Amino acid sequence: MRTLKFIDMTLRWAGAQRGVELSFKEKLEIARSLDRLRADTIELAPITGSRADKLANSTIASMAVTRISAAVDISAGNVEETWETVRSAAKPKLNILCPVSTVQMEYTCHKKAPAMLDLIKETVSKGRSCSEHVEFSAVDATRAEQEFLYKALNTAIDAGADKITVCDTAGVMLPDEFGSFIAGIRENVPGLEDIELYVEITDEIGMALACAAAAVKEGAAGVKCTTLGEGYPSMEALAKFVQVKGNELDITTQMRVTELSRVVGQLSRILHPQPEEESIFSNLSLDDAANVCLDANDDITEVTRVVRQLGYDLSEEDYAKVFEEFRRVAGKKHFVGSKELDAIVASSAMQVPSTYRIGNYVINSGNVITATANILLEKDGEGLRGVGIGDGPIDAAFQAIEQIIGHHYELDDFQIQTVTEGRDAMGSALVKLRAGGRVYSGTGISTDIIGASIRAYLSALNKIVYDEA
């Protein structure tokens, strides 16, 4: 049974779909959600050269376990610049987007077919010199001259592409037509024998999923999709297709299908806030998130404004406590950034009694086993035990706590850093949970970073429980 790969394009297309640019924090939250689903690949949009694009790409690349694919518009030629933004990813990849229909080649690249083949060879070769994995996406492939399309794909493969995507950009093919189209490619491009073939199909006439199914029957290894659909096959529809027809077609998926509904709901709230409501991240720009720079000269009004931009909704008393702690910290440092301000809020605002306390915990983790956590919490003198399975020890620990409390809270942010130096260094963790539209933060300190993370989660959780009582 072969694994059908889900290549998610939500981040690549979301901004264009909404007609507005995604904010820095929106991009990070979408990436975190997609990473939890374990799709094969998360695709990023081509960078425009702006600092915001580069920082967003590099941040996502550094935090994701899932393969990160950075798109490169062949007309831009910024292969090395794009690669630098994602090279830190656990599994990085470049995706060369290249028009192959006559109209698109001349309009986008101002080139005829022979010159286009030279550009394909040059760009893919350059990408291969940077990255072990290079995908070549033939844009508007269904409207290309067949002989040229076959030459373009062979040229890309010879230049080092190890994945090929053919795109029905117009989205007007019927399933049998698209199946024949894929069969013709496999027959006339001999290099595809050892190359993964993906399909990208727009849903212009509502046939995208059916065409994708036809392509899978002809041997396609992966399908491009978006979480919410909207012009492409949705991830939920693809998962349903595999569930229903998997045994018949001998295909399966590595996706966390049980997480899918929750993630779709989260991303729907981010990408489509209700008209009467603002997006929960709309007032937080890149500069607010990454370049907060307060000093001792800033007054309580400015500090309160930045705290609110970070997502907190505190009482006047807590804002005053935060400002007092800010003044103490600012007196010792040249400036106070967003991370320091998060820690100040977590340590000085909404200090409440501990409803939940750590009893004990056992964590099992390694590179050949799935991480598990067995945690005992104490509440009102009663021991409550939970067992969680996760992508790593901290994820497993958080899953175990959620099992105990019987509720899932959205993880808005998670940070860890060392407090002291040396082999016995103290570690500090910061956890921000979102509940009822508010952000609650907690901190924890321990020589064991997992213990610090558990304590930070419980600190935030206790504030939620106290507020909801």
Descriptive notes:
The chain is α/β, with parallel strands linked by helices. Helix content is 45%, strand content 23%. The strands form four sheets. Strands 2-3-4-5-6-7-8-9 form an eight-stranded parallel β-barrel, surrounded by eight helices. The chain has a three-stranded antiparallel β-sheet with strand order 11-12-13. It has a three-stranded antiparallel β-sheet with strand order 14-15-16. Residues 276-290 have low confidence and may be disordered.
Query: Oligomerization state of this entry?
Result: single chain
Strands of the biggest beta sheet: in what spatial order?
2-3-4-5-6-7-8-9
Q: How many beta strands in the DSSP annotation?
A: 16
Mean pLDDT: 86
Uncertain stretches: 276-290
Q: Report the sheet with the most strands, covering strand number, pairing sense and barrel closure.
A: 8 strands, parallel, barrel
Class based on secondary structure composition and strand pairing:
alpha/beta
Global shape:
globular
**Count of alpha/pi helices:** 17
Radius of gyration: 25 Å
Helix content: 40-55%
Instruction: Give the percentage of residues in beta strands.
Output: 15-25%
Q: What is the rounded distance between the termini?
A: 51 Å
